[in-house]
């Protein structure tokens, strides 16, 4: 089903830190925040990104919130989307429900830099961004029927918006596992709904992203080596920019339609 195409590391040379608290600079990359301080004198160094993408992030659960805040801190412009107005309001006010101290310390920073905004308007978010990350459902491998229903609804909404979007748009589905049948079904479904061609008008990637509660930001910035399925070379390049600066290696498998 898949053809392995490339393996590379997104690691950048580490930079010297002068402070234990959250540190801001614009000398090393596009992200101004290079470290986040938490729990007195403890801090975590952030990857240094050389790119700034416009990202729509669907789902304000554990993975969506941590990924959205984490990417915004690296200089990406993130629109976090959820149907729950309370979650949207909380994030726009710099509040997260997580007990992760790193996440609580970082969210106010990215809001102040205007790198993160939350919204209920998925249509506008897709039209104004380069790629959409879908982070819905449980963080466990076992997916529920409710998750599948939500995913179907999200794909329908994305497809409706893509019909009126001229530019190439990448859809990144973040799930622990996704069978070849599911991958082919989603790609074919979007093609049928939009009249567009996968790999030409839009791209599709599957990222095995799993973040544990209470330590989700630390998990995000220290992702393990990943095998990512991508529909085309342009999608591979965009995902490479998305995780630029991370220390993990990414192996791409080429998505092949049945």
Automatic annotation (TrEMBL):
Known Pfam families for this protein? UDPG_MGDP_dh_N
A molecular-function term among this protein's GO annotations:
oxidoreductase activity, acting on the CH-OH group of donors, NAD or NADP as acceptor
* Residue stretches making up the UDP-glucose/GDP-mannose dehydrogenase N-terminal domain: 54-234
Q: Cross-referenced InterPro entries, in alphabetical order?
A: NAD(P)-bd_dom_sf, UDP-Glc/GDP-Man_DH_N
PANTHER family (UniProt xref) = UDP-GLUCOSE 6-DEHYDROGENASE TUAD
Which protein are we looking at? UDP-glucose 6-dehydrogenase
Organism of origin is Paraglaciecola arctica BSs20135
């Amino acid at each position: 089903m898949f053809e392995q195409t490339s393996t590379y590391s997104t690691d950048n040379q580490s930079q010297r830190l002068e402070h234990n608290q959250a540190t801001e600079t614009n000398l090393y990359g596009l992200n101004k925040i290079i470290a986040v301080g938490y729990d007195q004198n403890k801090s975590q160094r952030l990857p240094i990104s050389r790119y700034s993408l416009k990202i729509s992030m669907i789902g304000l659960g554990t993975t969506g919130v941590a990924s959205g805040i984490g990417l915004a801190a690296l200089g990406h412009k993130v629109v976090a989307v959820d149907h729950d107005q309370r979650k949207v309001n909380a994030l726009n006010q710099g509040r997260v429900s997580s007990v992760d101290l790193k996440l609580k310390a970082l969210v106010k920073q990215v809001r102040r830099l205007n790198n993160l905004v939350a919204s209920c308007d998925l249509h506008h978010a897709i039209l104004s961004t380069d790629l959409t990350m879908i982070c819905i459902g449980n963080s466990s491998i076992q997916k529920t029927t409710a998750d599948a229903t939500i995913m179907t609804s999200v794909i329908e909404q994305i497809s409706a918006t893509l019909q009126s979007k001229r530019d190439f748009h990448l859809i990144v589905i973040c799930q622990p596992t996704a069978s070849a049948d599911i991958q082919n079904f989603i790609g074919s479904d979007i093609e049928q709904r939009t009249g567009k061609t996968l790999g030409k008008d839009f791209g599709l990637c599957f990222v095995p992203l799993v973040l544990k509660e209470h330590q989700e930001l630390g998990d995000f910035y220290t992702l393990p080596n990943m095998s990512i399925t991508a529909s085309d070379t342009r999608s591979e390049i965009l995902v490479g920019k998305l995780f630029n600066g991370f220390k993990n290696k990414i192996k791409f498998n080429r998505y092949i339609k049945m």
